[in-house]
Design a protein that fits this description.
Blueprint (H helix, E strand, L loop, with lengths): L10 H14 L6 H5 L6 H7 L33 E4 L1 H4 L4 E6 L9 H15 L8 E5 L3 H12 L3 E7 L4 H11 L2 E5 L6 H14 L3 E3 L6 H21 L6 E8 L8 H8 L4 E7 L4 H4 L26 E5 L1 H12 L1 H9 L4 H4 L7 H16 L6 E7 L7 H11 L4 H13 L6 E3 L2 H9 L1 H6 L6 H9 L3 H7 L1 H15 L7
Parallel strand pairs: 2-10, 3-4, 3-6, 4-5, 7-8, 7-10, 8-9
Antiparallel strand pairs: 1-2, 9-11
Helix pairs in contact: 1-22, 5-6, 5-9, 5-22, 6-7, 9-10, 12-13, 12-15, 12-17, 13-17
């Protein structure tokens, strides 16, 4: 049976964690505080005014929220960070809204998913920060978020990621966070190599505890409760005309973020949940394989934590379009051309808030709008998981490879990659299609990763399992509050 994390599993490890947190002055935020940071104690908010967003300070655990003031230092909390992209840019009538991940600590929302995996284990004794190392296998931002969370929680970390990821990731992990870094062969698509390294670690290093985002339900549960609620708030506060929450678009990657769609279905049963992936590796679309350049989304498998029953549509995006738009949105000639089209300069200057996977999500949103012939009453919400800041080395590489960016190239990229988005490589999933995708989990998770068929079937046939998994967060908050009471640190703030 699928396990729910709701009770103490190791009293000694819990005692050690309480001692470590008391010693280092670490207080854990509840998930409810990450949903609603106005609940954060005023004394903590006062201290945050002097702390940088990426600073190695335990109080930055309270900044794991979509509602950070968009400032590098000293910001507190406000509304959800998002942008709405105009039709002049997207070429479609539907309103496309993107939540912005840049204003999380580490500059990416994966720090929240990692928190959802680590905090429950800390508060139940499942992980001992005094004797064990937290291992974060990832194709990008998750290992950065996990290493950051570990550091703030007084634990050592190990980051595992493909060797072809951007150099910024490796430099930051080693030099800033002080994480042990293991580079595995390949690129975004080489998740199997990461799993192989995890098995090697399990066999040889028993004090290394693996937090695999692809099978840790803390990942999807965090997004269901925090990202889903953030989207609901944005939608409720949008101005103008009739409003229909028509679609939620997310790259599948670890299948954490797309779990926000499960929450949205509880408030808008008609909403279309759209999974986005790379055309060069269309695993969900047609059981395809290959390598691609959309950093931050792993593939060639179906994550254990993906509730495939709740996915309505799959789109596949050409990674070349993403790379061309990355230049269009960030090179001076590209920005100048977009402004000349009448796109508001404020919008043009915010396009650097989209990283490469965010651009892919945007293209999937446009494709969805075209396919379903959506109108100005229809709102599509998607995610910019990180920003261009994470990929500046890629801009340099593209310039070296293709030459300086020109206005002529900007015109071509705008016409082809935005206005030219077509309705090919999009599939509405039938019941049988969904089951076929779910069944692919067998080959990764049962044959390779040691899970059992009974649990696989439970994820498909048990009508209550997903809600039970998502709703365990309320128990986590109780455990967090009990943990903080044991450290005694909150009492000094009252």
């Amino acid at each position: 049976m699928i396990k729910i994390v709701d009770c103490v599993s190791n009293a000694k490890a819990l005692e050690n964690a309480v001692g470590r947190f008391r010693e280092k002055g670490i207080i854990l935020p509840t998930i409810k505080q990450q949903q609603n940071p106005e609940l954060v104690p005023s004394k903590i908010q006062e201290q945050l005014r002097g702390i940088g967003l990426w600073e190695i300070n335990p109080l930055n655990l309270f900044r794991i929220t979509w509602k950070n003031e968009p400032k590098e230092k000293g910001g507190l909390f406000g509304g959800v960070n998002f942008i709405e992209l105009p039709s002049e840019l997207t070429g479609v009538k539907a309103r496309i809204v993107m939540l912005i991940g840049k204003w999380f600590p580490t500059g990416a929302h994966k720090v929240g998913a990692a928190y959802g995996c680590l905090a429950p284990q800390i508060t139940t004794g499942g992980f001992d920060p005094t004797t064990q190392k937290a291992v974060w296998p990832s194709t990008g931002n998750y290992c950065r978020g996990g290493a950051f969370d570990s550091k703030l929680m007084g634990a050592d970390s190990v980051a595992i990621l493909p060797q072809e990821m951007s150099s910024e990731r490796f430099t930051w992990l080693r030099d800033y966070v002080g994480s042990e870094v293991i580079a595995t062969p390949g690129c975004e698509s080489n998740v199997k190599e990461i799993y192989d390294k995890c098995w090697e670690i399990r066999r040889t290093k028993p004090n290394y505890i693996i937090f695999n985002q692809f099978d840790e339900f803390g990942n999807s549960a965090w997004h269901y409760n925090v990202t889903g609620k953030a989207i609901e708030e944005v939608f409720s506060n949008l101005k103008g005309g009739q409003k229909n929450l028509a679609a939620f678009v997310s790259a599948t990657g670890s299948a954490g973020t797309i779990a926000a769609g499960d929450y949205l279905r509880t408030i808008a049963p008609h909403v279309k949940v759209v999974a986005s992936e790379a055309l060069q590796c269309p695993t969900l679309y047609c059981n395809g394989f290959g390598g691609h350049r959309i950093e931050g989304i792993g593939d060639k498998h179906v994550p254990w934590i993906h509730n495939v029953k709740n996915t309505d549509v799959v789109t596949a995006i050409d990674d070349e379009d993403c790379m061309r738009l990355f230049r269009l949105f960030n090179e001076p000639e590209g920005k100048s051309y977009l402004a000349s089209l009448g796109i508001p300069i404020e919008t043009v200057n915010m396009l650097n808030l989209l990283g490469i996977s965010g651009i892919s999500n945007l293209l999937s949103a446009i494709k969805t709008a075209r396919y379903f012939e959506m109108t100005s009453d229809d709102i599509i919400v998607t995610i910019a998981t990180d920003s261009a800041e994470m990929y500046l080395s890629r801009l340099e590489e593209l310039s070296n490879e293709r030459g300086a960016y020109s206005q002529i190239q900007a015109i071509k990229d705008y016409e082809k990659c935005l206005l030219g988005v077509s309705t090919d490589w999009i599939k509405e999933l039938t019941y049988t299609d969904r089951k076929a995708i779910h069944n692919l989990k067998y080959y990764t998770w049962v044959e390779q990763q040691g899970k059992n068929v009974e649990d696989l079937n439970q994820l498909w046939y048990d009508r209550n399992i997903w809600q039970n998994l998502f709703n365990q967060v309320s128990r986590w908050d109780e455990l967090i509050e009990e943990f903080n009471d044991r450290t005694g640190l909150l009492k000094s703030l009252r």
